[in-house]
Amino acid sequence: MNSFFLQGLHHPFITPAHLITLIALGILLGQQAKRNGYSALLIFIAFALASLVSTRFYRTDIHAEIMLLTLAGSIGILTTLKLPLPNWVTLIFAIIVGSLIGIDSASVVIPGLKVSKIHADMAGTFVSVSLILLLICLLSQFINKLWDGITLRIIGSWVFASALMVLALMLAPLGYQLKAGQSVIQSLTENINFIA
Amino acid sequence: MALANNVLAGSFHYEIDVMTQLVSKQKNKLNTIQMSWLYDEKISKMLLQDEDITPAKRQHTLNTVGDLIMTDLQGLNYFTQIQVNGRNLTSVQVKDYRIELIDDKYLRLLFNIPLTQPIDMHSANISIRLADPNGAAMLIYDKAERITIDKTITAKCVVKLINHEEFEHGKAAQLVDIDC
After folding, report:
1. Yes or no, beta carbons of A14 and B69 under 8 Å apart
2. 8 A C-beta contact, residue B151 and residue B28
């Protein structure tokens, strides 16, 4: 059982879209007032848990990783601009990111695999994503106090660039190019369907 | 094929090396389809992870894993779609199965899919498609010789194994076409 829990802990580190989005959300929350940051953190934990549990009963085919990377890029820009954001904006980001990470961490159905092992794996993932977000949030709160928060804004721009790079690599698995008479949207849709 | 080690990873895949025998108990009648599935090392290890496979408990553990696999597979129609002359065969619960561990690395599952009624093999066309609807398992026949027919079936049958170079997620990678 322990090995499955450890595998779960490992999960966000082998899923770039999850890690980048957690970093993005963590630095955004670290940039906000402490109280707002912590309430968004709790909301994230609640939604990540609920959506992870929901995958045992319902599965969806949404392109969660693409959505997460798009969100990570947007959050990266917001962090770089350091705009004063109302509390509800960070809460909405926390809800969406938590839900998408939970949904995208659905366990694979393997006939014969004990339910307890699947639950151990899911518990590992849940603990891992929650701790990563908490640590990044705490670290960002500290960094935000240095040099008027410039360092955090630079990290925000790196997150934006990283999200864009991973997104580009995901959308071009075999060399992305437009076919004759094909619009960018049609081509992107084709690539997204291919990835799915 | 890139193989991930985490059961939560979206791109998780594993391989099952398949052998099939068409079993006949009456002349020229097909009664049972016998399957032999050899699981790859990674998934065998995963299914046996944290389980007691010491000599004293080994068989008991394997039987428990086998029971779990067969219970789960029943809901997934044993990953098997069989058509006779273009008509789908209805699934019947598999009761005859056993599981073994080969070289302490690979799980092999042997089971018999009973047919509701015997099929006359004269002029019959049987197609078999094996696919995991969740897209994780890749069930593969290495070559057409992996599909064998009992000698009591005297009708001349031609076995063709058609590999699909591209196939949708959760669909069969191969088609077994048996023309008698």
Report:
1. no
2. no
